[in-house]
Each structure stands twice: as C-alpha cells, then as structure tokens.
Fold this sequence. Notes:
A: alpha+beta; Ubiquitin-like (UB roll); FAD/NAD(P)-binding domain; 7 domains; 7-stranded mixed beta sheet; 50 strands; 22% helix; B: mainly beta; Folate-binding fold; 9% helix; 34% strand
Amino acid sequence: MSRRLQPDSTERINRQKPLRFTFNGKNYRGYEGDTLASALLANDVHLLGRSFKYHRPRGIVAAGAEEPNSMVQLARGAETEPNIRATQISLFEGLEAASVNVWPNVEYDISAVNGLFAKIFTAGFYNKTFMWPKSFWMKLYEPVIRRAAGWGKAPTTSDPDIYDHMHVHADVMIVGAGPSGLSAALQAGRAGARVILVDEQAELGGSLLGLKREIDGKASGDWIEAAAKELQGIPEVTVLTRSTAFGYYDQNYLCVLEQKTDHLPLAERKGRVRQRVWHVRAKNVILATGAHERPLVFADNDRPGVMLAGAVQTYVNRYGVLPGKRMVLFTNNDGAYEAALDMQAAGAQIAAIIDCREDASGPLVQTATDAGIKILQGHAITGVKGTKRAKAVEVRRIQKGAKVFTSAAQEIDCDLVAMSGGWSPVVHLFSQSQGKLEYIEEKACFVPGSPVQKQIFAGSINASFGLQACLKEGAKAGAEAAKDAGFEGEGSASFKVQEPAEGSIEPFWIVPGGRPIGEGPAKHFVDFQNDSTAADIELATREGFESVEHIKRYTLTGFGTDQGKTSNINALAILSGILDKPIPKVGTTTFRPPYTPVSYGALAGRNLKDWSDPIRLTSIHDWHVEAGAEFENVGQWKRPWYYPKAGEDMQASLNRECRAVRQSVGVLDASTLGKIDIRGKDAAEFLNRIYTNAWSKLGVGRVRYGLMCHEDGMVFDDGTTARLAEDRFLMTTTSGNAAIVLDWLEEYLQTEWPELEVYCTSVTEQWTTVSIAGPKSRELLKKIAPDMDLSNDAFPFMSFQEGDVAGLQARVFRISFTGELSYEINVPWTSGKALWEAVMEAGAEFDITPYGTESMHVLRAEKGFIIVGQETDGTTTPQDLGMDWIVSKKKPDFIGKRSYTREDTAREDRKQLVGLLTENPAEILPEGAQLVFDKEAAVPMPMVGHVTSSYYSATLGRSIALALVKGGHGKQGGTVYAPLKNRTLTAEIVDPVFYDKEGEKLNG
Amino acid sequence: MLNIECPWCGERHETEFHYGGEAHIARPESPEALSDEEWADFLFMRKNSKGLFFERWCHSNGCRRWFNVARNTVTHEIVAVYKMGEKPPSLVKGGKS
C-alpha cells in the first residue's frame, strides 16, 4: 500500500528515478533522494526491529542522526554492516537490509517473552540477577545474554573496502549546512576566507529541507539551491555532504567522516574509496549543528507509529510520504502544531492535538483551531493501543504537577502519533571541545556556554529556532570568523522570511501514570535504544544513585551508538524531578566522540598490513629470500630467523647453523644493529657519562663493550663502541633500540650538558655489516683481505682495522657475540650484497653457513651474553646481571651510578641472572616460566623469578636456560622448579656461562 | 591533538613530537652528595598540575631539538614556547588571562 503523496514542489525525491530494494527479504520500491526510512514509510512499513532488552516491536521515530530505533543490517557478506540507522541510509538500487536483534523474524520474535519478565530486566539487572553462582557467568549467563541482547552481526571476513585520510587547514570550518551554516558559509566565502562546510546529509539545507518556507521571495528549496550554487563557484570554499563531523578536539582540530560511495549500488563502488576521514585544523569553527526534537515520556511511547512531530513533517514535505492517515499530535509547545497542519494539508486526518498545556494560545494554535482541528488542552496521552503499530491512544485530563492521573480515559483511534517535547540543541561537538553547557529555562534546553576554543555558535544550537534568526546568526558568525582570519567582508545580511511565529513551550517531562513512577507496570520509555524507562531512573535513585553519571551507567540511558541524542535531556529532567533539584544542578553527562559511529576501516585508512608500519630491509635481503630464510621482525627490520634446508624443521636448522659456527664458520647479516657516529672534542667525556664504564683511555683503533642505564640504574641498552679517532667514536646499539638510544643521547646533550661539544648522527643505514664467526673465520677473511695483517698481535680481539676487503673499502671489527673468533665487516650499504656474495664464495671451501637470529641467540646464550629486553626488563641493574665488572668504581658520576646504592637496588635478594640446567637435559624450559624454590608450596606459590632465555644447545647436547632468580648469585648449585600446566620441571642453578668460560676461542 | 610551535620549525602537528615530561628538573650536580630521599625526589617526583604546567617536548620527527612549553593542562592552551636553557616566562597562573 503506497503512502506516497502526489508530487509537490517542496519534495526532494526524484520521481524519474525509481529504485528497487529489499527489506527482510521483501521487495519494495522507492525513489532517488529517499532514505531507507522514508522509502519504508512510503510502503507503510513502520515495524523495523526489536528493542534491546524487552524485544518490543520498534519503528521509525526520527528522520536523521538522532534516530534511536531503526537500526538495520545492511548488505551481505564481507560488505555487511550492522546497526546502521535507516534514517541515514541513502536509498540505492538493489539495497538489501534486514532487521537486527530479531529471531526468527521481526514479526514473531521469540525473545519478546523478555517483556513478560520485565521485573528482572530493570536497571542494573546484569549486576543483580546473574550474580550467583559465579561459575555460571562464563558458561551460561554471558553467552545467553550476548545472544539475546546485542544488535546486528559483525562481518566475519576482513573489510574489502578502501578508506582514506585527508589533512586540511581552514580559516573557517562550519559544521552543519542548514540555514545557519549555509548563511555563514556564504558570508565567510564571499569575504575570501578558506571555508570548509560539512553536513551529514546527502544534500545541503539541513532541517529546512523538511519545512515549507520562503526566503527573500523564493521557496526555501530554491534558496538552498542558489546558495549551494554560489558556494560551488567560490574557489576557496569546500563543501562536503554526507560528511559527519564526529570529533572535536583541542585547538580546533576536528575529524570528519565523508561517506563517498555508501549511497551507490554495490557494483559502482568497486575500486573507489568508500569513506574518507578528514582531519581539519581550523582558525575558527562555526557550530551550526541545529537541534534534535525530544520525545515526550508517556506509557508505551515506543510503539511503532509513534514519531517525532518534526520527523513527520520532514517525511511529508521532503520525501512526499504520508506516515499515517489518521494522526494524533501530542505536544508541549506551539511549534509542533505545524506538523499537524502540514499533515492535514497533505490529506491526513488529524484526530486531535493533545496539548499538555492549559493555556496554549499562540498563532499556530489559532491556525489549527481555525482549520477545524480538535485541540485538547491540559490533556496527555496515557497509553497507546497496538503493539506492532499504534491503533489508538488513551487520553486523559492531567492536573498540573500531579504524580498520578485520576480522570477517566477517552480513546482516540489513530495510526500515527506525532510527539514533541521541545527541542534540544545539538551541543555534542561543543561538549567534546570541552565546553560547558547552560540551561535556558524559557526554552527548556541546554545551549553552549562560553566558547572554549575559537568557536562561534549559530542558529538552533543557541536555541534560536526560527529561520530568520538562524539566517541572521549564521551570516554574522560567518563574517566574524572570516574577519578574525583576516578577511573583511560584509558585516551582516538581512533576509525576508515567511515563517510561523515560534510560540512558547512548557516543560512536561513525564506523563503521570495510574500509579507513581516505578510502581505501575506501564513503560514510559526514556531511552529507546537502551530500553531504559522512567521507572529505571526512579529505581536507580531509590537504590542510592544520584549523580547523573552514575545513573547513566546503571540504567544505560545515553549509552550505545545513540549517545542519548533524544533521551539525555528527558532523563536528567526526570532525575531532577525525582531528586527535587533544578535541572542545571543535576548536570549533564559527558558527550564523547564519535558523534555517530565510525567504522574501524575509516579510522585505519591506508595504514593497514604492510602500510601499517615501515618495513626496513637490509641490502642483502633479496639473497636471504632466495636462500629460503624464515624472517622475524626486529623493530621495523625483517631479519633472517633461520635458513631451513629442504626437509629440515626449525630445530634441525638451528643445530646445523650452530655447529657450523662452533666448528668452521658461519655468516650473519648484522646490518640492522644501530650505528651512531659520535664526534666532537668532548666525545670521550660524553661516553664516560653515558656508559657505566670508562672511555677516556680507550685507544684509537680499539673497541669496548658498554652498558647504558637510566638514571634509576636500570639497564636499557648495550653494544660495542669503537674509537675511530681522538674525537670520534662509532657506537652500536641493539637493532630495535637504535632510534631510542639516539634520542637519549640527544636529550642529554641538549638538555643536561649543552656545554659538551658532541655531535651524534645515525649511520645505521650507511653501513652493511657482515659478521663471520667460527674457527675458520680468520682463514676466510685472509682470502678476501690479503693486505690486512690478521695476526693476533696486529689485530687483537676488541680492535678494528680499515682496509680493502673483496675490493671494497671496509672497516673490520674483531668483536664477537657468539664466543667464537669473529669479524664484523662493514662496507658502504650499496656494496653490502657484493661483500656478502664475496664472503659466501670465499667461504665455500669451509662450508660457510649463513645463520639467523635464532642461532645467534643460542650461541650467545651458551656464552651467557645478555640480550637487552630479554634478560632485562627495565628493573634489572648491571649488578643483577653479574656485570659489576663493567661498572666503573672510579668515575665520579655517570647516568645510573647514584641509584646503585639506593636501598632497593642494593638489596641482596634481588632477582639476579643465573644459568639453569634442567634435570632432564632433553626438557627445554618455556621462556617466561615462573620459578619457585618450594614446589610443594600452597597456591599462590611464592614466585622467585622467571626463565628469560631457553634453548636446545646442539654444541652442549642438552638444553640450557638463563633466568632471573631471587638472590640467584648466592644460590649456585641450588634447585628451582618451574611449575607448568601439567608437570613441574626441576633445574639446577648454575653459572650463566655454559661454553668456553675462559674465552680462549674469541681471543684465539 | 595539539598544534605545537617548534621554536626552530614553526607550528607542527603533535604527532611530530614526543613528550619529555616536566621541565626545569636539572640533573643534580653531585648525585653522590644527595641522600636517598633527595635522589628519589629527583628520580621520581613530578608535579601533576591542574592549569599552567612547564614541560619539555622534542621535535623528534622534525629537527630533533628539545624545547620547553608552557601549557594549560585544563584547556590545552599552549601559553608559551621557549628554548632549552631559557627561563620560563613569567605568566599569570592558569595561562593567559
């Protein structure tokens, strides 16, 4: 049954473009320009879904972003999107939508029995009802509640769409393109300012699109089109429709979600950016966000067919849809009378206007009287008949201030109830910007208080609800904002407007029931989306909740995707009544971003997968890939983890790689180690202060290992540093910490010791480092560096030489992380692969074996060498690591020194680094395993430390582990236990150096 | 998201910077001369001001220079930006009046 009206000049639908769509599997038709909501109403579909807790039938209430009820599941498969408001979905050809929160379907919903158990679903019911027994929560209550409560279904595959981000600056950012915003944009744009105008709707005009008005002798629709055209012609003006400003942050930073393809048929969206998040930084912001109409709170006010009066008007005027044939209007203000007049003009019957005021007499009231509409003043709707669609209302005479009604009811048949409790300015963005609200008694609403950033408010957000006022305020705001940004234009503008007088409003926060609030069975819904009623608020106060923030959390009022757009003010006004406190004293809850939901895809933009973080590759990377290496991420680097040969598992590969290093020669790409060039006359002094050991006496050409601590004495990085010249050092850092160490050095140079003449430069990516390790490494190096004297005297451990290696200018360091004789050959990055290939070729006769980070870890653990971040965790001192030898006793001061004697760091029973050998050599302790001394202790067992590194050592033919154990240094030979899930492992505490304790190999 | 004026590069987005905590906490000249309490005070104790706060920022993804900022922690208004080693400007408590 079509409810589409005859074409009218005010309508904004394109009757030349009919569109087909389905809802809950049924086929319908609508027009271009429709929303899903207007198209459904045109097909006389009011029932869209079921409510959150009680599964009550619900329909369309509003016509825009404030819609609390009509959330649907859109599309199917990967593109599916849950919980989209039907009022915000532009209709497109082939649209498929379905109800959410219904089973098996919206007409017959099984969970509707929840309504029969309403008593247990009151405020805080989760907390009260499902308390006991505890074990039932995870297994029974939670899964059942989750299935029954909840809304639509999240897609199960990854989002196939493309999203984008845009960063822009503006002189004037205008949020809302209703009459106020348009007027502001025209004024600011004409002055020459860079303007961004955003509006969430498909076209400009805002609420004016739903009204019949005249501006300067033109129909309002024509005025909007002329304004849009003019704005389009101003080069510095950017107009974004379908674009919601969802967040307003510090210093006029706003985020806007632009929906670029959501209104197109699926086939036309392929390959295009679906949504774009605009990051706008504006010199001035004009908030012209308008106002939302409030529902009235009466029994069964949630029945399908009960709608906001302004929404009814919008459906009639903008979409050419008659939402009902026989309407009752329930209002506390004059303005809503226009909805009845528009409905009447469109052919509907107005059964009655129920006005809760005793003495309504404004011009609109007069017009309605003249039009022959029955007006019942001092009356209220006290009940609605019909569950899936309103069929009649129960109307009673209401005494002012009465808590219960006493008069008899009359029943009025209808199929549509329009309600208006007055208007609430849309202050969400202002609140997000940290602004405080002020209450205006005579208009019964909150408006923005003083601006907190460079912001101006125009139109309905100021409770200036008339069109004339909106246009004027907009123009003034536009001129002011432009002027502030340095653009002088016309100061004001005047408009000739035809509109009805605004009239008056009398707050009427809750319609009394037969019994006081909270006592009767009647449901006066306050928050439709969260199914919270006036009784819930009353109950919450009875149970001791008085703060509006607590009430919100206990009753869920104002939660969810709705964020209380239609419910917040009613809720706190009812609360104010119960607490007998004035509304401003009760205060408002916090409005948080986003204003309406934003998809994760939009927030992520292009920062996905490989683009989520830079990937750093060494110059030899391609070779590793060809060699079949498995990679691991180290910071942003991809490092070869191990090089499995055909048929090898990881352990077999590690065993082979480790044996090669211990018996012949292995080669490692060590390019990722951080390298910092440090120079200046005070460089040595600087290192003295940064490292725990002394650097002044290190000779040129020599290398030293150093530990860095924070001021609190805890180790934060380590590495070797070479003295290249009297005033120049090359520091190496751990791969993941290179940037952090550089920042650390800079921080001290710039903030603590600016008198030191030292310059630090990151040279990590200037050098490729190829490390060869093993007894054959000297022989190998000799082959490719014949001119270098590699004898132990000329080139001892912890020194370096510069010279020719494989025809490349190289710097060779004799240092070792494996405990073997080892050389790290550095050549310019671009020659890295050439060097690697030369090494591989020369090493062929020694069966040279490339090894990855995992073998490196095993080899260094055999030597008891620490890895920062593995053996340390920010609470580990050098002494804890048994590295007192590297902490200078002579230097008067260095970073961390003072902290070693603090009471806590000097404790004997700190967790200290030890080696562990499992009783069963085949058992490998899990890294991270907690350790105890007494395996019989009662749970929770006193934990004395944890395993930091653990491997199978092919060299030793058994497992080895490093661990931090309380007082471990004095417990050598003792036993610890690692209680695991099904067994407990036993291990002996030993020295952390398992291999070549005397260091003969690396010195050899 | 703040806009911060780097004294060397000009106004930039907060994501280019990293935060360095409270400003004007000089590393003691002779840590060894301090009691444990005094040293702990230097190590751990920082103001948590509501209103005007002097703090350090580093333009880490830009010129990599450290500098000082006077910011109102309530409104996030940046009241002043000044270089390392400079004294904090005398400001009305709570920011510009």
